[in-house]
Amino acid sequence: MSLWDKRLSSSIFALATLVVLLAPWLFGAWEAWWFWPFVTAIAATGTLGCVRLALGGLRHSQAALGSFAFGLLAALAPFLIYALIRSLAAPVSLDAERSFMLQLTPLILGFVIVLQFDARQVRRLGLLIAVNLFLLGSYGLVNHYFFGNTRVLWEAGYAQYQIGYARATGTYYCPDHFSGLMELAVALGLGLLLDRNQARRLRAGGAALVALGVWGVLASRSRGGGLTLLVLAAGVLIWGLAQWRPRAALKLRLGLLLSVALMVVALALFGGNYVKRFKEYPWSWEKIELSERYQMTMGALRGWQSAPWFGIGPGMHQNLWPHFAASADGNRKLGVRPKYPNTGYHSYEAHNDWAQFLEEYGLTGLVLFLVMLGGLGRGLYRGWRRELRERRYEQYAPTGRQHHALTLAALLAAGAFCFHSFGDFNLQIPATVWLLATLIALPLALIAQEQPMRNRRDRLKAEGC
User: Fold this and answer.
1) CA gap 121, 441 in Å, rounded
2) Highest mean pLDDT among 18-32, 70-84, 319-333, 443-457
3) For the whole prediction, is pTM greater than 0.85?
4) CB atoms inside a 10 Å sphere around CB 198
5) How confident is the model at residue 328 (pLDDT cuts 50, 70, 90)?
6) d(C-alpha 393, C-alpha 387), whole Å
7) CA neighbor of 202 nearest in space, from 131, 265, 285
């Protein structure tokens, strides 16, 4: 590696790490004065990556990246092109730009990691993220139990979240978004804990991160977060125990089911305000219809029905909310008022990422987005499956692979957010999106780099060499 190549590599790593680690500490980069500087940093990271490619860098992994990287690009490019066209056509340019940047910047960050990071940098950033999530969770719990969440960092917090429930907010203003951050901590901790290739100290650190993350979710009193913990447990049952012999895996699954059941019973008996929040949820259909979240979701779906194929435009939910807020049972000509006019509040976000995405990008955008997710999921599943096959071939002895903890963390995190996004807008928080993209990209970088070596080994085995 030449001196210039080394300097470029170090600069790319430093910029990407700065974004991923610092953004959650600055209110999730939600406000424009935090969001755009981080977007600039990501753009600079991508630019340096292009310069390095042009100068012939990446000798350490060039052979490995070929078909894998182009496969990912083929899955990502159609949606990005479509999102760019739709954002340019949107009537409110600033909101459309932000929406498009929320789609583009995590993909730039992820692609830089896949193309530019070597194995040492991937492992280092993974550990830094784990430590950072532990610090973020610790801050949230200290701020909750000792200071009553009266402030978020140096700014005043929102008092309504503390009335009756006392909900932890961490470095985010909203407890539900702090819960989403802690769900990522649980996913990464489970990856470290369950990977038998990891050293004991790292697995112990993973256990501590899981405990802290679960504690953070419970302290946030997020109902969606609590249900997402069950989704994470289900993910462990499906993906997390692939390295164990079948009999041992069965025992661990039964133990996990028993532990989750005991935890649910303990929460039901001693959960206090958390159980109170679940009980006060509008479980009956009549009460659900009255809830603002349901009405915001239905408003978003009414907006989608007005432009089903291409959507109303990126970032346009908040601008066109007055047009779609009222329920569809009103009739202007007959003088019939809608049952739910929804004039008492304004929906800036739909509290349902899937419904808002469908509204703004249409069915075409959703299909292309799912194709993109399928491409990413296929890459992760390839690495997970490869580890499983080699474990079986080697009679469940260690394989020496380095990506399994991150692969498992990415699968769990993606599953958790696909579920939680039906009831909240965590994927509108820039720092959370960038962190999730990084957790997905890190294992993909390792899977891509090790692929040719493993394929060569497989061919040799098949030939009897």
Assistant:
1) 12
2) 18-32
3) yes
4) 18
5) confident
6) 10
7) 131
> Token digits for 458?
């497989």
Per residue, the 3-state secondary structure of the chain, as one string, reads: CCHHHHHHHHHHHHHHHHHHHHHHHCHHHCCHHHHHHHHHHHHHHHHHHHHHHHCCCCCCCHHHHHHHHHHHHHHHHHHHHHHHHHHHHCCCHHHHHHHHHHHHHHHHHHHHHHHHCCHHHHHHHHHHHHHHHHHHHHHHHHHHHHHCCCEECCEECCHHHCCCCCCCCCCCCCHHHHHHHHHHHHHHHHHHHHCCCCCHHHHHHHHHHHHHHHHHHHHHCCHHHHHHHHHHHHHHHHHHCCCCCHHHHHHHHHHHHHHHHHHHHHHHHHCCHHHHHHHCCCCCHHHHHHCHHHHHHHHHHHHHHHCCCCCCCCCCHHHHHHHHCCCCCCECCCCECCCCCCCCCCCCCCCCHHHHHHHHHHHHHHHHHHHHHHHHHHHHHHHHHHHHHHHHHCCCCCCCCCCHHHHHHHHHHHHHHHHHCCCCCHHHCHHHHHHHHHHHHHHHHHHHHHHHHHHHHHHHHHCCC
User: Side-chain half-sphere of 157: how many Cα atoms within 13 Å?
Assistant: 25
Q: pLDDT digits over 9-45, tens only?
A: 899 999 999 999 999 999 999 999 999 999 999 999 9
Range 312-323 burial, b when 16+ CB lie within 10 A, else e? bbbbbbebbbee
Residue bearing tokens 């739909």? 350
Q: How many CA atoms lie within 13 A of 379 on its CB side?
A: 32
Q: What is the pLDDT of residue 127?
A: 95
CA dist 435 and 425 (Å) reads 15
Cβ-Cβ contacts under 8 Å for 152 (sequence gap 6 or more): 27, 143, 169, 170, 171, 172, 173
In terms of C-beta density within 10 A (0-12 exposed, 13-18 middle, 19 or more buried), how is residue 146 classed? Answer: exposed
Here the tokens at position 151 are: 């402030």
Given a contact cutoff of 8 angstroms between Cβ atoms, the answer to whether 219 and 141 are in contact is yes
Alpha-carbon distances, residue 39 vs 96, 97, 223, 233, 255 (angstroms): 15, 11, 32, 34, 44
Rounded CA separation 400/383 (Å) = 13
Q: Which residue has the tokens 């050293």?
A: 199
Q: Which two tokens stand for residue 3?
A: 């001196």
Rounded to an integer, what distance in angstroms lies between the CA atom of residue 439 and that of residue 184?
9
pLDDT in tens, 139-169: 999 999 999 888 999 998 888 888 878 899 9
State the burial class of residue 221 (Cβ atoms within 10 Å of its Cβ: 0-12, 13-18, 19+). buried
At residue 67, the pLDDT reads: 65
Give the other-Cβ count within 10 Å of 442's Cβ.
27
